[in-house]
Amino acid sequence: MDFKTLLDTPPWDWPADAGSMFQKILVDRRAKESDRLLAAELAGDFTVVNDDLADTLLMVACSADEPEQLRARAAISLGPVLEQANTDGFEDPDDVPITERTFHNIQGLLEKVYLDTSAPKEVRRRSLEASVRAAKPWHQEAIRSAYSSGDKQWMLTAVFSMRWVRGFDDQILRALKSDDPEIHYEAVIAAGNWELDAAWPHLVELVNDAHSPKPLLLAAIGALGSIRPAEALDVLVDLAESDDEEIAEAVSEVRAAAEVLSDEEDDEEDEWIN
């Protein structure tokens, strides 16, 4: 299979040796940088990532003599497996594709890369964005520093990171007013994740605005469903009949979540009565 065709192939249909292929390209400094970038992007997928691939991605991210974009790509590719390991834990080794040793190694070295002020900004940003998916105490100060820097790229990283780390409600609400579309989008996601009720009026405006870009609209639909699931259905009634399948599906997911919540509340009430 042509390496680049894997981009258009579902991961579950990749060949059995896909992970080994990615690893060989990642460590081959004679390979085209575009191929190495693609390998770094695909190597973080759950269908192939393991200790060896994670260690290779980490080695690339930490290597000062590797290209900046490759280091950044390798770092951010470690985010999903960090999140899964942090969520599922290590009681059952079959639940997580990496070991606890590798998990802590990734955490420690990504922090080291972030703290290295001689490293390129893009590499440090991606190291922070990946590492927050298994949050540690140092992330609080890192996010504050990034948000207050006045640098739009660092601010974007900060608001993205606020999705994963508690304690930034005020900053998220301020970011909802940002003129930067990427910062605005990340703020909507973060507001929904932490169920920020104060964000409700702004999110309602977004879903009622015919000019809201589709990605922002989808994020706002999801956020409304997280904050007030039952009320969200009233706000989204027109969008439920949208000709756009993604929009209609997003509203359908809100409806399903609201029904689950209603059933749980009914069960709790029945238990209380009994």
Mind explaining what this structure looks like?
The protein contains 15 helices and no strands. Helix content is 65%, strand content 0%. The mean pLDDT is 93. With 274 residues, it is mainly α. Helix 2 runs parallel beside helix 4 and helix 14 runs antiparallel to helix 15. The protein folds into two domains: 136 residues, no CATH class; 123 residues, Leucine-rich Repeat Variant. The protein is globular.
Oligomer: single chain
Rough outline: globular
Question: What percent of residues are in strands?
Answer: under 5%
Question: What pattern of helices and strands is seen along the backbone?
Answer: HHHHHHHHHHHHHHH
Output mean pLDDT.
Answer: 93
Given as residue ranges, the uncertain stretches (5+ residues, pLDDT < 50) are none
Largest sheet: none
Number of strands: 0
Instruction: Briefly note the structural class of the backbone.
Output: mainly alpha
Radius of gyration, in angstroms, nearest whole number: 21 Å
Number of helices: 15
State the separation between the terminal residues, measured CA to CA: 62 Å
